[in-house]
Amino acid sequence: MERIEMHKRMVKLLRHHHLLSIATSINDRPWCASCFYVWDNEKQWLVVTSNDNTRHGSEFMINNKVAGTIALETHRVGRIRGVQFTGKIYPPKDDDLKRARKDYLLRFPYAIAADLNLWIIEPDFIKLTDNRLGFGTKIIWEKK
Question: Alpha helix (H) ranges present in the chain?
Answer without folding.
Answer: 8-16, 55-62, 94-107
